[in-house]
Structures are given as C-alpha cells and as structure tokens.
Amino acid sequence: MEAEAGALYWKPWGFRLEDIHTKVHTWHGEEDVNAPFAAHGKVLAEKLPDVVAQFYPGEGHISLIHKYLETILQTLTA
Predict the structure, then answer these.
(1) pTM higher than 0.70, yes or no?
(2) What is the pLDDT of residues 14-53, one digit of tens each?
(3) Phi, psi dihedrals of residue 51, rounded to the nearest 5°
(4) What number of other Cβ atoms are within 10 A of residue 48's Cβ?
(5) What 3-state class would DSSP assign to 50?
(6) Residue ranges per domain, the chain?
C-alpha cells in the first residue's frame, strides 16, 4: 500500500515545472513529513520560473495552514 501511495506523488504530471510562466505562490513548512521540504518545497521553488516561495521553519503540513491561513488567503485573493 505504501508504495502505491508514493507513486501518486511521483507520477509524471504531463508538463514541466519550468514551462509554467505565470506567477506561482507556494507555502511550505520545513518540518512537513507528508510533503518533505527538501523533496517538494525546495524543488518547486527551484524549478518554477516565477515563484514566490515562502518557507516556514518549525512548521508542518497542518500547523502551517492553521497558523498562516489568513496570510495565505490574503495572497490568493489579492
């Protein structure tokens, strides 16, 4: 089961991140065990050409949303 779940994360998306030419905002907790920072957050920030990446030390998958939801929503609705 675990291998199947991992495949969902690593299946090709059908496009390259480098080909996205619109501004993308990302928020990532550096202690996220569901989407590890080094494998997900950093990679997205490095490959997206026009990214505003925000990394939060000490935050995980859920704590980031819980603590910074208002900030995230303000960015998304601006």
Answers:
(1) yes
(2) 899 999 999 999 999 999 888 888 778 888 899 999 999 9
(3) -115, 140
(4) 20
(5) coil
(6) 15-77
